[in-house]
Amino acid sequence: MADSYQPSLETSLDRDCTTLSRHVLQQLQSFGPEAQDLSTLMNRIALAGKLIARRLSRSGLVEDALGFTGRTNVQGEEVKKMDLYANDVFISVFKQSGLVCRLASEEMEKPYYIPENCPIGRYTLLYDPIDGSSNVDINLNVGSIFAIRRQTGDDLDQSAADLLQVGRENQLAAGYILYGPTTVMVYSIGTGVHAFTLDPSLGEFILAAENIRLPDHGPNYSVNEGNFWQWDESLRDYIRYVHRHEGYSLRYSGALVGDFHRILMQGGVFLYPGTLKKPNGKLRLLYESAPLAFLVEQAGGKATTGTEAILDVVPGELHQRTPLVIGSREDVDLVESFIQERIREQEVLQASQK
Ligand code: AHG
Ligand code: MN
Ligand code: MN
């Protein structure tokens, strides 16, 4: 008699692999319209990530992938070819989604509208298409950062005024894609932080870590110490403290996504404070700091400007920069304590001079 067929659990996709779309729906415990929307949006972001990862993996082999375009963006920074490629990938991917009416990115002065989506597409995608683009030409890790906000109002004057609201209430989802030795997508829709690794043979992001929590304290501190001379004395005092105590390691790659990923997985703190030349630091609130602040809070950590939670900052404009201190709760508290002490000292000094 022939043996009856038994499916092998060892090789079953269902048992071993949770894909991104299934995970999003599981997180929402719903098949309602918003859950379907978020699942579709995440899948579209994943598709953009796959396209960008593919281009990056061949960047030394194909023409016109590396180097500068010769243009500068709205922030006066030189634009790389990969910045524009990745910016366009997100646009074309979302043109087909039907869900996103508007995209706002580091590389575009004004939001980009997809008018055919606007009657039903009530979401805005904010993104940094290539974060850490100085790493592109030297084959080191880069990333993409994203946040999804619900579009409120009709925005008929195209001022994007409804985007100028705090991240705490208006970000429905946020995350990043890290293009390293493997491509990793980390996302949150407000139910924890989850990481997926791209399996290039399947073309699927597969669950790698669920409900990531950072330790309350970690050994890493990540900051461009070349700016020491430009910092407020409070930040210099913090760095002097770190230099004089055992147990700290400096780790800085020049790409926020990579440096943040290390902090998320191992603990510690990333800092980009204000400098003499850039009093609000370098990082942009809406598509760099606020999405990562959303993730870090979901993972039990903290993100602050030094005096205010990043998620409570009201943006004054689309491309607003903000100082950023982000990571493990105790490490961020320590940085804040140096900043607060300095503020108190200055208040006392001012009072004594009156
Ligand atoms: P982007 O490439 O999107 O402009 O971002 C670069 C950012 C960030 O990724 C990184 O942490 C920081 O700039 C590095 O700046 P410094 O070279 O001033 O350290
Ligand atoms: Mn960036
Ligand atoms: Mn960028």
Structural commentary:
The protein has 354 residues and is α+β, with helices and mostly antiparallel strands. It has 2 domains: 2-209, Fructose-1,6-Bisphosphatase, subunit A, domain 1 (Fructose-1,6-Bisphosphatase, Chain A, domain 1), CATH 3.30.540.10; 220-352, D-Maltodextrin-Binding Protein, domain 2, CATH 3.40.190.80. The chain is built from 9 helices and 15 strands. It has helices spanning 13-16, 20-28, 33-57, 81-95, 167-170, 233-243, 256-266, 285-298, 329-353; strands spanning 68-72, 78-80, 100-105, 112-113, 123-131, 142-150, 171-179, 183-188, 194-199, 204-209, 220-222, 249-250, 268-272, 302-304, 324-327. Strands 4-3-5-6-7-8-9-10 form an 8-stranded mixed sheet, sandwiched between helices. Strands 12-11-13-15-14 form a 5-stranded mixed sheet, with helices on both faces. A two-stranded antiparallel sheet has the order 1-2. The termini are far apart. The mean pLDDT is 91. The structure holds 2,5-anhydro-1,6-di-O-phosphono-D-glucitol and manganese (II) ion (2 copies). One manganese (II) ion (MN) binds next to strand 5.
